[in-house]
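Quick one:
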Amino acid sequence: MKLSAIAILTIAGTAGAQNLLVNGGFEAGTGSDIDNWEQLAGPSGATIRNNDAFAGNWAASMSYDHVANAPSAAPFFIQQVSVANTLDNSVNYDFSFYAKLDTNDLVGLNVFAQVQWLDQDASDGGGVQGESFFGLIGEGINTDWQLFTFNDLDAPASADSFLVRFQASQGPIQGIVNGLSVDNASLTVVPAPASAALLGLGGLAAARRRR
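Output:
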């Protein structure tokens, strides 16, 4: 059976776009609770979903208020852990999301995203097998929604699953109100070179037919 260039493009695009994160747009949940994500907040702030979203109706928000509350060194984060043996460590991954800050006052603030590569079935000793860490202040995060994309992440051969975390960490500084918002998070398989070659051949064949 011969596939047209359009059919090849559709199949490859669908496979490449499959998001391994569940509820990456944070649309599913009840009130401030986000389905499929663990939420942690310290005593001087909150980790919630709110309707200040880049797309859809909801986004995740981690914020703290050191004006009305005593400073705390506790982190604020959301994270998702996949179950054992859901990761294909023979391929690489693209990690992307939209994010912004509440204010550009960066005093006492660190915001980051990370992917931890895990061995949950303990076939290689268990625990964290590696980490991809991204400091968002260094990446130029500000008060506007912007896309952050980190390509071609290499999962260790000993990993069988992952943990994805977005975190805002604050120092014990009085008088600061700040936070991090995240939306449309995805972790996807990098398309195989064979798929790219197929797409190229399909496009060439289509161009020849048009001529």
